[in-house]
């Protein structure tokens, strides 16, 4: 079993450089999914984020190659 790093909302906010309120209101349950990105120990209220899952999914879109069509004036069309 691999070692996982559990972070509180405040610790995650420091790593991501976001405000903890933004994580709670905008990212939790919209971007972060319970059971994948965060868990609640023993069904309690307190949330712990799984850093490895967040880090993995955070860089995934950047690694995906998008088809790009070079344009005449130097631009790129993603289509």
Mean pLDDT metric: 87
What general form does the structure show?
elongated
Strand content: 15-25%
Largest sheet: 3 strands, antiparallel
Total beta-strand segments: 5
What is the CA–CA distance across the termini? 41 Å
Unreliable spans: none
Briefly note the CATH topology name. Answer: Multidrug-efflux Transporter Regulator, Chain: A, Domain 2
Question: Share of helix among residues?
Answer: 25-40%
Biggest sheet: strand arrangement? 1-3-2
Radius of gyration: 17 Å
Order of helices and strands: EHHEEHEE
The tally of structural domains comes to 1
CATH class: Mainly Alpha
User: What is the second-level CATH architecture?
Assistant: Orthogonal Bundle
* Number of helices, where a helix is a run of at least 4 consecutive DSSP H or I residues: 3
General description of the model:
- The chain has 79 residues and is an alpha+beta fold.
- The chain has one domain: Multidrug-efflux Transporter Regulator, Chain: A, Domain 2 (Orthogonal Bundle).
- Helix content is 37%, strand content 16%.
- The chain contains 3 helices and 5 strands, in the order βααββαββ.
- The strands form 2 sheets. A 3-stranded antiparallel beta sheet has the order 1-3-2.
- The mean pLDDT is 87.
What are the salient characteristics of this protein?
79 residues, alpha+beta, Multidrug-efflux Transporter Regulator, Chain: A, Domain 2, 3-stranded antiparallel sheet, two-stranded antiparallel sheet, 3 helices, 5 strands, elongated
């Amino acid at each position: 079993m691999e070692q996982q790093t559990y972070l509180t909302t405040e610790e995650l906010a420091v790593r991501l450089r976001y405000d903890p309120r933004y994580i709670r209101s905008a990212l939790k349950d919209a971007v972060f999914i319970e059971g994948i990105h965060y868990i609640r120990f023993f069904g309690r209220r307190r949330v712990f984020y799984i850093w490895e899952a967040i880090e993995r999914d955070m860089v995934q879109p950047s690694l995906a190659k998008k088809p790009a069509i070079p344009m005449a004036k130097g631009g790129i069309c993603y289509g």
